[in-house]
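Exercise: predict the fold of this chain.
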Amino acid sequence: MNAIIISVGTELTSGQTLDTNSAYLARQLAAHGIATTEHITVGDDRAAIADAIGLAATLAELVIVTGGLGPTEDDLTRAAMADALGCSFVEDSACMAEIEEFFRRINRPMNAINRTQAFVPTAGQAITNKVGTAPGLYARLGKAEIFVTPGVPSEMEWMFRNAIEPRLARQDGMILHRIVHTFGAGESDVGAKIADLMKRGANPLVGTTVAAGMVSVRIIASAETPEQARKLGDEMVAQVRGRLGAIVIGEGDVTMATAVGELLRSRRQTVATAESCTGGLIGKMLTDIAGSSDYYLGGVVSYSNRIKTQLLDVPEDLLIQHGAVSEPVAGAMAEGCRRRLGSDWAISVTGVAGPGGGTDSKPVGTVCVGLAGADGTETYKSVLPGTREIVRLRSALASMNYLRLRLQNSQFPKSNV
């Protein structure tokens, strides 16, 4: 069985809201052996929604639509569903009773506009919603079963678990998704190392994607049983890890900060940060993780040269001779931070994030990183392309990656940031 997921809402097509519903549904369907072939996003347009439903029903055996079931004028999915089915829609007395009971339960008066949520296409039927006011919808169109849920994630998830999932016949087979995250090489370099694993139509199916400054390898394994799918996934992950070596950060939900944190925790060591161009971003990433106080002591945002000298003990003559954006200053920042905060490790970043401030010798994107530990201090210099935001993000990731590799005793060339 193949599925198409349709997300409805101008807030989605305009970029004001991120569509998380499609990702959730695709993962849940994969666990039932159902492959999602398309994600379609449609604005609040009755004809466009009806066309999308009609087309999807000719291409897939299962269509799930989310959004557009609210009580306001721009909630058009109910009417569009009726158009796609070629029928009218009428008020369902049982739905109306459930909506009225919902408002009684929360002790709020019901606005008359909520009556529109009780309308159901005559060729379909309603799906109960126990956590909101908008009932879902179900109908058959040609070869396809069509389910419509509210767009509110909590309501959509409840309806999937309690109304849609029980009606899905488990398919013969299992689809397993794995993802391996890397940092330190471009997508083309990663792709070249695993090119023979990325053949179209292969099982597992392997591909790459870039997000948040990291290159990730996607693995989709299909098999008759969960055990066989896991075996295929495990074998491919092992191959990918073997090909890519030290640039692999981890799998699944692992981030650079979680990888570094686990290494520090396992060694019972601590880290502190001295940041200039990143403005506290490294500290933010590290402290986004619950329990990071086990290994992160704190940091200094030394944006000005005066703070570098006063709080990090960077010699003034070093700043005069080399400039704030230099490897000697980055090294001194890391050493001063480690000494002042009493940490096992200290990482520092100083650079020209842009869009202005660059020179011929230090163009925009020039970044220097320092890493100080008990066994000495290392510094790294790179020129990173991209906007101010991208330069800052990659600088933060690179600095943590140097620490990760030191903790793993891995070699990491200075040119690979």
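Check your answer against the key: The chain has three domains: 2-167, 174-251, 256-407.
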